[in-house]
């Protein structure tokens, strides 16, 4: 098992990129393994590590199919639907509330919302 080359933070040579950097260029790792890693030292904990991939072996990002677009739209709609009143809130419901704002914080003056 060969050890990975380790570079200091922001000192990686050209030809290597993180997943985010590849995505910004319209690329993906494409099945290749991690080629190197960056380490950023910290004072009281272990170093931060970022994995690098070779840009020359990266492949283009696969285009979205109509089925994937439909699945993404359905998932986003589910995140906007309140589980209590079953209405589209018009925004992504925060996990901390678990319901839309009117359901999470009812006021005594509000009439009950119809289902």
The whole-angstrom Rg is 23 Å
Query: How many distinct helices?
Result: 3
Series of H and E elements? EEHEEEEHH
The side-by-side strand order for the widest beta sheet comes to 1-4-5-2
Helix residue percentage: 10-25%
Strand content: 15-25%
Question: Could you characterize the architecture of this molecule?
Answer:
The chain has 115 residues and is an alpha+beta fold. 22% of the residues lie in helices and 18% in strands. The strands form 2 sheets. A 4-stranded mixed beta sheet has the order 1-4-5-2. A two-stranded antiparallel sheet has the order 3-6. The relative contact order is 0.14. The mean pLDDT is 91.
Topology:
Elements: E1 6-8, E2 16-17, H1 19-24, E3 27-28, E4 36-40, E5 48-54, E6 59-60, H2 66-80, H3 101-104
Parallel strand pairs: 1-4
Antiparallel strand pairs: 2-5, 3-6, 4-5
């Amino acid at each position: 098992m060969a050890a990975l080359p380790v570079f200091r933070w922001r000192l990686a040579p050209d030809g290597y990129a993180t997943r985010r950097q590849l995505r910004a260029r319209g690329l993906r790792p494409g099945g290749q393994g991690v080629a190197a890693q960056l380490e950023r030292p910290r004072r009281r904990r272990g170093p931060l590590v970022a994995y690098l991939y070779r840009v020359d072996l990266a492949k283009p990002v696969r285009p979205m199919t109509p089925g994937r677009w439909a699945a993404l739209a359905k998932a986003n709609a589910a995140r906007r639907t309140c589980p209590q009143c079953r209405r589209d809130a018009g925004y992504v419901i925060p996990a901390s509330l678990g319901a839309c704002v009117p359901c999470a914080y009812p006021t005594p003056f509000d009439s009950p919302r119809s289902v």
